[in-house]
Amino acid sequence: MIAQEIIKSLKAAIWFMFLTFPIMVIKVNTVYKTIEWRWMNMVFIGVGVFVGSFVWRWLLERKDKPSAKKESISTRTQAYLAENPISKRALQGALLVALLFFPMFMDAYQINIFTVALMYIVLGLGLNIVVGLAGLLDLGYVAFYAVGAYTYALLNTTFGMSFWIVLPIGGALAAIFGILLGFPVLRLRGDYLAIVTLGFGEIIRLVLENWNDFSHGPSGIAGIDKPNFFGLELNLNQMTDGVYYMMVVFTIITIFFVGRLQNSRIGRAWLALREDEIACQAMGIGRTRTKLMAFALGATWAGLMGVVFAAKTSFINPASFTFLESAIILSIVVLGGMGSIPGVILGALIMILLPEYMRTFSEYRMLVFGGAMVVMMVFRPQGLVSNFRRKYSFHGVDERLGG
Amino acid sequence: MENILEVKGLTMDFGGLRAVDSVDLYVKPKEIVALIGPNGAGKTTFFNCVTGIYTPTKGDILVNSNRGGVRINGFKPNRVTERGLARTFQNIRLFPNMTVLENVMIGKHCRLSAKIFGALFRDKKTRAEELKAAQECYVILEKLGLEKTCDELASNLPYGDQRKLEIARALATEPKMLLLDEPAAGMNPQETVDLTHLIRMIRDTEQIAILLIEHDMKLVMNLSERIYVMDHGQKIADGTPVEIRNNPEVIKAYLGEDIDA
Ligand SMILES: Nc1ncnc2c1ncn2[C@@H]1O[C@H](COP(=O)(O)OP(=O)(O)OP(=O)(O)O)[C@@H](O)[C@H]1O
Ligand SMILES: [Mg+2]
Questions:
Q1: Dist. CA B14 → ligand 1 center (Å)
Q2: Domains identified in chain B and CATH numbers
Q3: Cβ-Cβ contacts under 8 Å for A278 (sequence gap 6 or more)
Q4: Which of B87, B96, B102 is facing A268, going by the closest CB pair?
Q5: Summary mean pLDDT of chain A
Q6: Which ipTM was obtained for this model?
């Protein structure tokens, strides 16, 4: 038994030493034309993989044990909060107060980072409608963000239209684009859908990059007006605070609406569509309508955030809307837990705040994300926070039926 | 009395294979009709054509022929369900990660009207509608004896209960006619007897017609008022259970299978 385990780990260690040999051991110095052999690295990798593979197998085993199947902390917490509305309100109140007083103790830089984090929470919640609730893997979400941003940038710089007027226009236009994307992909699922949406995102970006007369190409659009708060004259710091508070309000509204969508007739239909499309249609749910609604609603939030983004930075160019952006938003949803609002919030905070505060590691950011994703998929595929569903109670029915 | 479902010359081709070959069939209100035949006879394909999952190659499917009749060929499945035909599946197709009650509430979907506005603002009307829907679904579950499992995930139910839940979900669409595809498949003899009573009870209390595919001859003979027999895509006989039992063509098609079982 133990001998077997040791052989397994030895095999893994040798395999890894072999694989990493060219990059970790051989170092060619092109100036002096010498080769440096770093055998110590090979030893490190061998020992590391040997030990690591034991840990990995131990974790895998622990995961499969029935005792580990008991409800996770997140599920228990959510169940507790659902049963104790007072603690839930108290927690919400505390969080709100913390959010409101936060800018008083922080400098503009910190506030800015938090504003960005809030924006990603909203984006994550929007994408969560499409990916988490309706189960449609959308890799081109950033396209709708771009639609919103360019709507405001163009309408503001050419016609001088104000932020608050363009905000709904940007949302609506993004929704229309969502429906435009939705129609051709109605029949697609999974990987196929992912590829087409990825392509859609790239099309939008490439159009913005190359259609100089319309979008000013790669040089972007500068001098976009900041949002106007009740006609007040604000200095730079006050503007940062203003945008922050606006995002707090936005986030609360989004959480509220997405929560309601989830527990509504439409939310149920999305869930069912995700589970079994044919059965869902046979039970009387229109596929076209339901899917388009998910695309349109998800896109709306991206559009709104796009407008906010353009107003906040006052300069946009196509480089802000690359696939990486879609990938980050998707990671937020997957990491946090698909379909779970607290999960998406947590995911956004981790994905946005951690890299900001660990600048020293920022070079390895993508590496860490990738590794974290793989580990997540193996050990906790449902995300950090598992989706908690409400339950119905039927005391009313029992009484009515005399039972 | 007029027919609730009338099918004329229904034909379905898969490439070169004619799975259903000009089949005629009708069902009157409150009737229990069985559709039987050996494996691969085309019974499920017939159901799929009627419920809009396939668009038939030829033929007419008419619903409610008393009011002139609506031809539902090529309707999307959800439109067919709105017209009052609800079905179950041979290979169970529940929503495994939704609760039992939620499964049934999906059936209610097409009879509810809440739109995005209602979902976002949850006004009084929407709340009342949701509560009423949940209660009606709970009553359906009680009827089928599944109410205790209402908050359980559908995938956690035992096999027999999953089949019943499919029926409950179909009932929630408020159908005029139920199409059951092998409801007793995989059930033990006792469960099959219970199911027989259950189907008759549903017909009597809900006043709906039932068309069922089944291989269990005892259930078919006990339950149905008329029987259609298919083989190789064609209808080879129809009539009362007694007529079918003594029909030489049917016996030939079933050669080796014990029709009196
Ligand atoms: N989607 C399809 N594409 C091609 N051929 C199909 C398709 N569906 C069914 N068939 C074929 O049509 C014929 C009839 O199949 P069907 O499933 O309707 O039989 P059935 O009477 O329901 O049989 P069973 O009693 O085993 O359920 C079979 O030969 C089957 O292989
Ligand atoms: Mg079949």
A1: 10
A2: 1-84+175-261 (3.40.50.300), 94-172 (no CATH)
A3: B53, B77, B93
A4: B102
A5: 86
A6: 0.89
